[in-house]
């Protein structure tokens, strides 16, 4: 399959705008510069042509921009599938992400807010190739972080949030006591 190496520039660039989506839509993968939209277009085209499920694997180190790349691919599918304004599918699929991040993100030596989750996002299309729904499954990858952290790293953010809130009256009703 196609392999794209992307680098997280840690700043917003104008290479993910709506006009860039339209520039890659309908193009062959080798006709344009390497881009997450080229990979998404190829998967979308093969899904429509072969009527078979397609997969895009986004992999990389902490802070590499995996979640952002997945968001851009979903935005591409929603736009070319004609469902971007109708359903805001990207927003709906990722709506649970802030809650999941509080529970499953931690400080690492490379990233202050690194996700410790693997994500599997399944997007459903109708016969006209419009997005009709999506499902996101998450998998906690680093259970060991609960009991051990390397120097200059932290446990999951939720641990510190719970400790900071332990004196609140709501915690008494929950049977939780202050952290020591």
UniProtKB/TrEMBL annotation:
GO MF terms held by the record: actin filament binding; ATP binding; microfilament motor activity
The protein's name in its UniProt record: MYO5B protein
Domain Myosin motor: 1-180
A biological process from GO: actin filament organization
Keywords attached to this entry: Actin-binding, ATP-binding, Motor protein, Myosin, Nucleotide-binding
Binding sites annotated in the UniProt record for ATP: 60-67
InterPro entries associated with the record: Kinesin_motor_dom_sf, Myosin_head_motor_dom-like, P-loop_NTPase
GO CC annotation terms, alphabetical: cytoplasm; membrane; myosin complex
Gene3D superfamilies listed in its UniProt record: Kinesin motor domain
Family, similarity comment: Belongs to the TRAFAC class myosin-kinesin ATPase superfamily. Myosin family.
Species for this entry: Rhinopomastus cyanomelas
Alphabetized Pfam families for the sequence: Myosin_head
């Amino acid at each position: 399959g196609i392999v794209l190496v992307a680098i997280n520039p840690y700043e917003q660039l104008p290479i993910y705008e709506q006009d860039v989506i339209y520039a890659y839509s309908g193009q062959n993968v080798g006709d344009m510069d390497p881009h997450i939209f080229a990979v998404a277009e190829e998967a979308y085209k093969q899904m429509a042509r072969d009527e078979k499920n397609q997969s895009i694997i986004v992999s990389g180190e902490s802070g590499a921009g995996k979640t952002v790349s997945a968001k851009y691919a979903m935005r591409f599918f929603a736009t070319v599938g004609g469902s971007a304004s109708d359903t805001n599918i990207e927003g709906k699929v990722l709506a649970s992400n802030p809650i999941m991040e509080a529970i499953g993100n931690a400080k690492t030596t490379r990233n202050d807010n690194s996700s410790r989750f693997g994500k599997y996002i399944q997007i459903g299309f109708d016969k006209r190739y419009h997005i009709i729904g999506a499902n996101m499954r998450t998998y906690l990858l680093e259970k060991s972080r609960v009991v051990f952290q390397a120097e200059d790293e932290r446990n999951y953010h939720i641990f510190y949030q719970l400790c900071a809130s332990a004196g609140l009256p709501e915690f008494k009703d929950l049977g939780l006591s202050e952290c020591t």
